[in-house]
Amino acid sequence: MSKKTPQAIRGTQDIFGAEAEAFAFVVETFERVRRLYRFRRVEMPVFEKTEVFARSLGETTDVVSKEMYSFDDRGGESLTLRPEFTAGIARAFLTNGWQQYAPLKVATHGPLFRYERPQKGRYRQFHQIDAEVIGAAEPQADVELLAMADQLLKELGIEDVTLHLNTLGDGASREAWRAALIEYFRAVKDQLSEESQERLEKNPLRVLDSKDPRDKPFLAGAPKIDAFLSEEASAFFAAVTSGLDAAGVKWVRAESLVRGLDYYRHTAFEFIPDGGSASAAALGSQSTVLGGGRYDGLMESLGGAPTPAVGWAAGIERLAMLVGAREEERLKVGIAVEHDDLVTAATWAASELRSQRLSVEIVANGSMKKRFDKAAKLNPLYLVSLHLDGEAPSFTIKNPEHSDAYATIKAVLVNAIAR
RNA sequence: GCGAUCAUAGCUCAGUUGGUUAGAGCGCCGGUUUGUGGUACCGGAGGUCGCGGGUUCGAACCCCGUUGAUCGCCCCA
């Protein structure tokens, strides 16, 4: 029998201490901001039938074709650990009759799973916050959603990221543009990188954000989406941008920004750290911190009625990296129990103080002489010594300059030793 | 899926061209001291050097494999 301790699964994390505090700070801030915009909280299953993702994301996307955690359950049904939120929320919208609440604004957060090579800011089990507006065709929905994202980042103290914005047009615009791109790049196909040659067949829009120097010369001359936008699509995008200006959200046009998943239409966006900024350095190559767009085509792919919708998701780990380490709240009362006969009194006092919303740590193990030092190292606002004065229980309270809770603590301790 | 770097005590690391019982700081445990306290000093526990093979008289060090982490590509949040 082996005594070896099993290792954690590759790409999973055990988050602790300052990092866990930063993680919680991101979630708490998101919860607060989401209420300001009246997004309703939803809790979603962590797994769904595989087809929920396969049909909505597109069979040929990387996520579906090689990154999903799929398995057959005991009934022989193929299930998949959610690789993203949107598909599951769309499924819930259709199966629960949430159409009655449209336009429905919902927010959630939790773990997602993707079988990828782990690296900085990228994990196999990772966590996102997510916001969606379903059943709203107006550009105002895009604006509100983006304004919320912008405010969230500001409240997290992340100032050096910028909204990169693009439009993919409506279905017809997108198809015409796509065809023109294929035609343009096919003419120079043998001069492109191997990766772009492959992308050209699978997802020609992706060629546009290639970083390969062999592709660069051809990117500038590639057809632009703007030339293919229908009148309605142009008007829609203009309404989004003017709305953002009105809301005070700074943005830049990113003509080559596309989305990886098939269901996107119209607005596509990412918040990306500014070049050379502290955030860019903190994130390494995983630069997108929040991304999303409009997915008017998704509901139909799941067998529902055409339903306009727009949403975004942001990686909690990535946001937590930008927020930096956050300290745990300072301990209020540290009690050094300097004689074993006083443990009961300390337990009673701690219970009493905690019920009055004061955090308490009891130090009652190891050498009695060192307990005070140990309690002092916890850096409490009030450092309490419980000891024997001859035969009689007694106490002292250090750091009395913090007077707000001093009287309370003293009264509790007087009762504790009198018992 | 591809490429690169790394893996020594609980943590951060040192270990000189392969050569005796593998070290330090911090942390932990005990004691002394400071006669009232986060100090200083002494002592202690803790490692089959990620794991498995190989080369060698001899491997933490060289070679191969493997697992994991990190960085980049890809993809994405």
Strand-helix topology:
Blueprint: H1 17-36, E1 40-41, E2 47-49, H2 50-57, H3 62-66, E3 69-72, E4 78-81, H4 86-95, E5 104-113, E6 125-134, H5 139-155, E7 161-167, H6 171-186, H7 194-202, H8 216-219, H9 231-247, E8 251-253, E9 265-273, H10 278-283, E10 290-294, H11 298-301, E11 309-315, H12 316-323, E12 333-337, H13 343-355, E13 360-363, H14 371-377, E14 382-389, E15 392-398, H15 406-418
Parallel strand pairs: 1-5, 7-8, 12-13, 12-14
Antiparallel strand pairs: 2-4, 3-4, 5-6, 6-11, 7-9, 9-10, 10-11, 14-15
Helix pairs in contact: 1-5, 1-12, 5-9, 13-15
The structure holds one RNA strand of 77 nucleotides.
Question: Which keywords apply here?
Answer:
419 residues, BirA Bifunctional Protein, domain 2, 2 domains, eight-stranded mixed β-sheet, four-stranded mixed β-sheet, 37% helix, elongated, RNA-binding
Description:
This protein has 419 residues and is an alpha/beta fold. The protein has two domains: 17-170 and 230-323, Bira Bifunctional Protein, Domain 2 (BirA Bifunctional Protein, domain 2); 333-418. The chain is 37% helix and 21% strand. It is built from 15 helices and 15 strands. The two termini are 52 Å apart. The protein binds one RNA strand of 77 nucleotides through α3, β6, β10, β11 and α12.
